[in-house]
Design a protein that fits this description.
β3 and β4 form a beta hairpin. The longest helix is centred in the N-terminal third of the chain and has 60 residues, at 7-66. The protein has one domain (33-151). A four-stranded mixed β-sheet has the order 1-4-3-2. The chain has 155 residues and is of the alpha+beta class. It has helices spanning 7-66, 84-98, 111-118, and strands at 74-78, 121-125, 128-138, 142-151.
């Protein structure tokens, strides 16, 4: 039995091979995009935590050198903007407003000042404006701020 390979059969085989190659590449791309997105979120989260930790360590070292009593060790910001990327960026922006509290004596933290910082505060993230309001505040070694976030429409 002889097998004759014609140009038509060769073209069909090449077409099937290229079709399979394209489908495989597209499937791999879709899988990889989700993985890359989760890695970006993880990287941004870790970078934010590292930044906060560096500020906290610096302020705590300064506080230890001054021999204060009970001091604020860290600031925790809780909010939900719906999107993980947006929540992460808004949390970082809100945390920057409170970084000055780290290293202060707990008794010296003024709750009305913290409330005033977040009362109808406008934060701009990714060319969008968001209004934040303080839901509740817990002052101890860790200052916990829970914020309500609403997207602003217009100027």
């Amino acid at each position: 039995m002889f097998l004759a390979i014609t140009k038509k059969a060769l073209r069909a085989a090449l077409a099937f091979y290229l079709f399979g190659l394209i489908c495989g590449a597209a499937g791999t791309m879709l899988f990889t995009l989700e993985l890359v997105d989760s890695l970006y979120i993880e990287r941004d989260t870790l970078a934010s935590e590292l930044s906060e930790s560096r500020v906290r360590i610096e302020l705590l070292e300064q506080s230890l050198s001054e021999r204060r009593t009970r001091v604020v060790r860290s600031v925790a910001v809780q909010l939900d903007a719906g999107d993980q990327h947006l929540t992460l960026k808004l949390t970082g922006a809100a945390r920057e407003l409170l970084d000055g509290l780290i290293g202060q004596e707990v008794a010296a933290v003024d709750p009305t000042l913290v409330q005033a910082i977040f009362h109808r505060r406008i934060l701009t993230v990714e060319q969008h404006q968001f209004e934040v309001n303080l839901k509740y505040l817990v002052i101890s070694d860790i200052v916990t701020v829970n914020l309500d976030v609403t997207k602003r429409l217009g100027p």
